Amino acid sequence: MPFPVRLAGCAALLIVMGSTACSPIRTHQGYVIDKELVDAVQPGIDNRESVLQTLGRPTLTSQFNQGEWYYVSRESRNFGYSDPKVREQQTIRVRFDTAGNVTAVDRMGKELIASVDPYGKTTPTLGRKRSFFSDLFGNIGTVGAPGTGGGAPGGGQGQ
């Protein structure tokens, strides 16, 4: 192959590769929100079973009182190898009373997204700082000692 043809081929390849790195990558994560279905869920009328039939399984549920279901939908976009940026996020929160009836349906946007930045390579903790040797030898003499919770297998005290 002559030199100008190779050069033109390499230039074309670089242009194609460069243009694909700059094209946006759009992603969708989570629940696909249908406005009519969400509007169909009415407080005081619907219960857990009817919400499950209408909206399907929630993205996540409340961990403590089992009284809230969350449906999360997120649209992201990024260029090439950069970190994705959230363009739009909608969260539907369905709250239930103790009998399982819907008490409220709330809509929230991306303003509630928490940004968590790591702090160095370690997580700071409260309390004393321990060295490698205190971690390694710190339990010598305390295993099975009275008042330290050690003792017989199974967690009980020896008879």
TrEMBL record:
Residues making up the signal peptide according to the UniProt record: 1-21
Entries under Pfam families matching the protein: BamE (PF04355)
GO biological process, any: protein insertion into membrane
Any one cellular-component term (Gene Ontology): Bam protein complex
GO MF annotations in UniProt: protein-macromolecule adaptor activity
Protein keywords: Cell outer membrane, Membrane, Signal
InterPro entries: BamE, BamE-like, BamE_dom
Gene3D superfamilies: 3.30.1450.10
Record-linked PROSITE patterns: PROKAR_LIPOPROTEIN
Domain Outer membrane protein assembly factor BamE residue range list: 30-105
Protein's name according to its UniProt entry: Outer membrane protein assembly factor BamE
Organism of provenance: Sphingomonas gei
